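U., I forgot to send this yesterday:
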Amino acid sequence: MSDGQAVRVRTVVEIGCYHRRMAELPIMHAHRAVYDWVDRLKSLRAAYKAACEAEPARADRDSEWLDASLVYHSLRLKGLDVTQEDVHEARRASRTGPGDIGNALAAWSRVRDLAITGVALTPDSIAEINGLLDPDAAGRFRTGAPVAAYAGHSAPGPDVLPALLDNAMDWFTAESFNTDFHPVEQAALALIRICDLQPFPSNNELTARLAASVFTLRAGWLPIVVHHELEAEYRKAILHAVHMDTQPVVDLLVKCAELTYADLGITS
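Result:
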């Protein structure tokens, strides 16, 4: 067998395994109707909408605060020693680079643009978000083995990454994905898939956390802010998820959604 044939065989095998894994993911959500979090979030969303209607300037003010909050918590989860005031100051000054805060603000601004325009996530847009986080890498897909980010987990080789990422993005735009899953679940599955594939040399989780909010924002929900105070729970949930137990990530993002409403003064 030639080297080219070996690569093609390995690609077909890895893509086949990936499709089987993707097919298994929705099974655990088949009984979502028994969960009460869907109704809780609906109530919080309705209460927040009423508060914004009562105070028209609130939505824009809160949006600015949420931008800074999301970037702050995301960078803290990355292990960076930043403060909320650092991020708020950069946000108020419209600084979008260089530096970790400015890069993250630029990447987040792009995520908001994608949600507003209704453009679906694509491999190119994911790469663009990653490239804004690390301009030196320019959003290039990795060409070597990934960093061993999760115990017992192996990300696919670089030769199959383009096909696997295409498949993931196709799934995210499928009618069944958008009708069978709540936007928070969609965000969770997107977060998991990018972490699972590890498509870039660095900033995979940060890219995933930012990109996941496309699904909530475009459906009229608030962005997903994974609070850094929940880091231990977050790390555990991601580890479960890359081993095919996605429910902990969904539960975590639900908790984070409720915390975000609470940060804005809206509680159930």
